[in-house]
Amino acid sequence: MGCCSVTPITKGIDDVGPDEIELLEINGAGVWSLGESKLQVSLKNETDEPPKRSPPARNITKEGTDEPPHRSPPTKNLRNAMKEGSDPISAKESAQKRNSQVVLWGQTKDELHQKLYTHPIRDWEGRAAHTYGDIIYSSLVFLHNGYMRAMAERYLVLFSFHLLILALDNSAHDFIYEGILPLSAIDVRVISQHDPCAPHMFEISGPMVDSKIFICASAAEQRIWIENIKDRRCKSLRQQLSPSHSALSYLLPCDEGWKREELKRYLLRSPILQWEGSPIQHMGQPAYISLVHISNSQRQGSQERLIVLFPLDLLILSVDSQRLRVKYEGRLPRKSIRALERSARHGRLEFELTGDLMESLLVSCTYPEDYQSWIFQLQQPEKTQAFPNHTPPPLIPKKRRS
To answer: Spelled out in words, what is the top-level CATH class assigned to the domain 252-378?
Structure first.
C-alpha cells in the first residue's frame, strides 16, 4: 500500500484538526463528508424550527387616552439584529453580497479566492493553498511598521485554522507569499480605539511569531477580523485531536527522504509547546532531522528525542506518545559541540555528543543513514596541543643616547 502527500479539501468545518496535513491513501473522491453532513443537519434544524419571538418590552397605555404604546427603538433594533443573526440564509446572502463586490485589481473576492486556489503564488512554500480548506474571510489591509513608521499593502486570507499573509505586486496583479500562521499559535487584540492616530488597528502576536499590526479600512471590517480570528482560534484549541488528524503520526519515524522534508516544513509552521528564544523561522533552514534516543549519566534509560540541525544550532524536541504535540527541550550552539564515534561498541549506531559547557550525551540512532549523517555534520577535529603557543616576552625598549 503506497502513501502520498495529499490533504483532503476541507469545507471550513470543525471536524478537521488545526494540523490538517494528511498523508493518506485516497479512496473515491477523497473528501470527508462527516462534517458536511453535520452542518447540513444543523442548518436544517434551524430552518425547520419557527423563530422564537421575545415578548415586547412594554405595552402600557394610559386609561382614557388613545396614545399608542411606546416602543423603545434600541429594543426594536436589537430584536431585528438578533433575528437577522439567527437566520443563516440572511447571513449567507450578506456574505455573498460582500464577496461579489470589487475589492482589488477590478476583481471580486470570489474571483480572488479562485485565483488563490488555481494560480501559482510567487515565492510560495509548502503544500498547495487549496489544501488549507475553504476561505472564511479575506480583505485588503495595511501592515504597519512601527520602526520605520511606514505602511504597506497586504492581503489577509483566513482559513479554518490558518492565517495567510500575502504581499501585492500591483503592476503584475500577482500575490507574493509572506507566510502562513497557525491560529492556535497566535493571539489577536484590538489596538486602543481612543487613539486618533491608530484607527481600526489590530495586533497579531505569539511566542513563535513576530508581532504584526494591521490597519483595516473601517471599524466594521476590524470587528469582522477580530471576531473571526478569535472564533476560529477557540475552535482550533478546543479541537480534540486524534492520530488520524495529526501529520506527525504519518511523518514519524522519518525513515524516508520525503518524510524528512515534510517534517521540516511542518516544524516551521506548527506551534511548539514551551518554546523559548527567537522564533524557529529565524534559525534558518533545517539541514538534517531524525528521531533518536538520548541518555546521559544522570538519567536511567534513554529518552526519545527529535533533533534538528540548523546552521548555527542543534535543536532538541520531544514528541508525545500519541504523536500529536511537539515540545521544546533545548538547543545547543553548533560551534561548541562535536560528535565522537563509539567504536568500542561494535554494531551499535551510537555516538557521543560532547561540548565545553555541557554534559556528554549518548545518542543512539535507528538507521545507519542517520548515524553517518550526524557523524559527518557534527564531527570536528580535536584541538591538539602538539605545537604549544607560548607568547613571546615583551620587547625591552632601547635607551636613547643623550
So the answer is: mainly beta
